[in-house]
Amino acid sequence: MTLEELVACDNAAQKMQTVSAAVEELLVAAQRQDRLTVGVYESAKLMNVDPDSVVLCLLAIDEEEEDDIALQIHFTLIQSFCCDNDINIVRVSGMQRLAQLLGEPAETQGTTEPRDLHCLLVTVSWAWDLPHPAQAPGPVFVNKVELASLVPAQRSATIGMSRGLHGGASFPRELF
């Protein structure tokens, strides 16, 4: 391996850590600001009602779940809908880390069913939804992470191990 190849590998690893940290920060901020929709079904409902409010779709799957045909069909439909509506898509692995970030209990102990973290939507914070600075109890921040520059042709980024959308088939406008 040459010096140039070593430097390129180091830079790629650093960029991936930076993207991962940005996505983690975005998810935590979106949850704190009540701009995070969790679950495949809940996400599909929101995208049917108000797709313009969605700025990012995060699809999460671990390696052992990649053979789940029903989940793959849902992902394909969601990805198609996101592409049709210019919604950025990020595929991630590491469901345990995602649950930890979002404050999910380690074990539900049979009391409640864990939330479906396979699909997360981050919605936009519209300017007219924010209180006037004089009325706000404290500083108001709107976080924005631009992922379109990573893969401009597909408007998606991949973190961890995942499979992309294959084929150019057309899907119905509504989900499920």
Automatic annotation (TrEMBL):
Belongs to the GADD45 family. Residues 22-119 form the Ribosomal protein eL8/eL30/eS12/Gadd45 domain. InterPro entries: GADD45, Ribosomal_eL30-like_sf, Ribosomal_eL8/eL30/eS12/Gad45. SUPFAM superfamilies: L30e-like. This is Growth arrest and DNA damage-inducible protein GADD45 beta isoform X1. One of its GO terms (cellular component) is cytoplasm. GO terms for biological process: regulation of cell cycle. Pfam families: Ribosomal_L7Ae.
